[in-house]
Amino acid sequence: MTYWPDEFADRYRAAGYWTGEPLDAMVRRHAAAHPDRVAVTDGDRHWSYAELDRRADTLAAGLHARGIRRGDRIVLQLPNTAEFFEVFFGALRAGVVPVMALPAHRRAELSYFCGFAGARALFVPDRHAGFDHRALAAEVLAEVPGLGEVVVVGDAGPWTPVDALRAAGAGAPVPEPPAASDLAFLQLSGGSTGLPKLIPRTHDDYLYSVRESARICGLGPDSVYLCALPAAHNFPLSSPGTLGTFWAGGRVVLAPDPSPGTALPLIERERVTLTGLVPPLALAWADAAPGLGADLSSLRLLQVGGAKLSEEAARRLGPALGCRLQQVFGMAEGLVNYTRPDDPEPTVLTTQGRPISPDDEVRIVDDEDLDVPDGGTGHLLTRGPYTIRGYWNAPEHNARAFTADGFYRTGDIVRRTPTGHLVVEGRAKDQINRGGEKVAAEEVENVLLAHPAVHDVAVVATPDDYLGERSCAYVILRPGAERPRPVQLKAFVRAAGLADYKVPDRVEFVTAFPQTGIGKVSKKDLRAVAD
Ligand code: AMP
Ligand code: DBH
Which of 197, 230, 277, 288 has its CA 20 to 30 A from that of 330? Predict the structure, then answer.
């Protein structure tokens, strides 16, 4: 399987972007050079590079011994614990492809990932944030009988404990290393259609983005990265995140949750030097910092991304937390933009950064795919050495989501400044960005359409001071149907097994939707009604 046309792959190799090194090699390299240096801190546990390397080897061998082999898929739903990296690197080392589920995902998402990816195993914690993932796994297994097994980190109950894999792998041969041009893992898209899309990332392309991100952000062996967002998400995983920190030989500190009460004392205790947050969290930290009185003097860089940061908010953050700000505008499909450490302050406050690579091709086009004049606002299209050419096994969707010559249609509306920095001006995709958590309107609409009282529904974003956006479901009832209470419709979405953040924040009943000129529902006008 090739993921880029040969002509491009050759170019990216010749330019030195793709080096042929698998992603897990960085752990092996540091384990050899300075085995006792701490790689991961999780509460009172500190795993050295040597320990992480050994554990990854054992897990790789364990997967192999149990018949989970190169090219097989597993679904990884682990929270911010050291085991996340043991399983992640172990799988990569065995050539086994993890699907990077989030802890917030529930039955509908996990069943879809397991079924669609044909997963051989689902990895879950026992409990996390008061929720029993073993019970969730039972529901998934009932829906996806082909799923081989459930592996639990913690108290396994009826399932396979991760210790069984470790035991199977102890002393067993470690599989041959994967080829760097192979698929490393399947990242998830926030999506805008009914079903979430899987994003095929190779070792070569991902490592390039990680390496350059680490360089741009100035990471080194003394860097201490606080992983406060869910570790599987593309931002904390790669921009430069945990992998960038490992690449540089630094230390990753895992926060069990991102609240200021948890995270700020951790920064003080572990002398954290950088972290990445979504805008609402960054503001919550800034608000809570004076009251908590934690010593944040070690913190040098606060990265904010995932959703638009207003200039006003950007202005507050640096002074409130006593560190530099960096804006990050990225996507799991590839392209990542950073403001640079030497950018003038107005650029850092008012733009979402510029691309990582000189070979990131950016086009800004109108509705007819024609380039807008310099400085104009339009749809962002992109192609480059770490941006996918298509979603995994989705030919029909790919025909719409990519141009014929391979540019990804990001769905973002942007303009470009004379220095090449991008400013996100809006969004054309049918999605709600709920403080960095993306909700595909269609996915929620499809669930609500199955409710007996619902004739039609449109889910749109409404402005929100805290999250930036929240979701509102506009519902047209069936003739004669009794009007359900909004909480009943919300409960219906939850009962369908969707993650909590996809449950509409608001439900409004209407008798008709505003229409566009050709009779489609005008979400633009609906959003205006909601304001
Ligand atoms: P996903 O495709 O789910 O990885 O989400 C990526 C999307 O998040 C982008 O296409 C943008 O819509 C949004 N996004 C990420 N970072 C920013 C940012 N700094 N400002 C505005 N939107 C952002
Ligand atoms: O929102 C994102 O998906 C995102 C934001 C910042 C991302 O994938 C990234 C950086 O790599």
Answer: 288
At a CB cut-off of 8 Å and minimum separation 6, what does 455 contact? Answer: 476, 477, 478, 479, 481
Residue 448 belongs to domain with CATH number:
3.30.300.30
Q: What is the pTM of this model?
A: 0.97
pLDDT tens, per residue, the chain with 531 residues: 679 999 999 999 999 999 999 999 999 999 999 999 999 999 999 999 999 999 999 999 999 999 999 999 999 999 999 999 999 999 999 999 999 999 999 999 999 999 999 999 999 999 999 999 999 999 999 999 999 899 999 999 999 999 999 999 999 999 998 999 999 999 999 888 888 999 999 999 999 999 999 999 999 999 999 999 999 999 999 999 999 999 999 999 999 999 999 999 999 999 999 999 999 999 999 999 999 999 999 999 999 999 999 999 999 999 999 999 999 999 999 999 999 999 999 999 999 999 999 999 999 999 999 999 999 999 999 999 999 999 999 999 999 999 999 999 999 999 999 999 999 999 999 999 999 999 999 999 999 999 999 999 999 999 999 999 999 999 999 999 999 999 999 999 999 999 999 999 999 999 999 998 888 889 888 988 766
Please choose from 209, 212, 239 the residue to mutate so as to test ligand 2's pocket, defined by most ligand atoms within 8 A of CB: 239
How far apart are alpha carbons 386 and 370 in whole angstroms?
Answer: 24
For residue 132, is it within any domain? yes
Do 389 and 468 fall into the same domain? Answer: no
State the total domains in the chain. Answer: 3
Going by C-alpha positions, the residue among 202, 248, 234 that lies closest to residue 23 is: 202
82-93 vs 49-65: helix crossing angle, rounded to 10: 60
The rounded Å distance from CA 218 to ligand 2 centre is 19
**Span from the CA of 329 to the centroid of ligand 2 (angstroms):** 6
Segment holding 485, helix H or strand E: none
Among 155, 185, 203, give the residue marking a domain's end: 203
Does the beta carbon of 382 sit less than 6 angstroms from any atom of ligand 1?
no
Instruction: Out of 203, 231, 256, pick the residue that ends a domain.
Output: 203
> Does residue 394 sit in the same domain as residue 487?
no
Same domain, residue pair 441 and 421? no
Q: Which helix (H) or strand (E) holds 128?
A: strand 127-128
Residue nearest to atom 8 of ligand 2 (CA): 331
What residue's CA is closest to ligand 1, atom 5? Answer: 331
String of DSSP letters for 488-506: HHHHHHHHTT--GGGS-SE
Q: Are residues 415 and 444 in the same domain?
A: no
Say yes or no: 184 and 108 in one domain: yes
Q: Is 436 in the pocket of ligand 1 (CB under 6 A)?
A: no
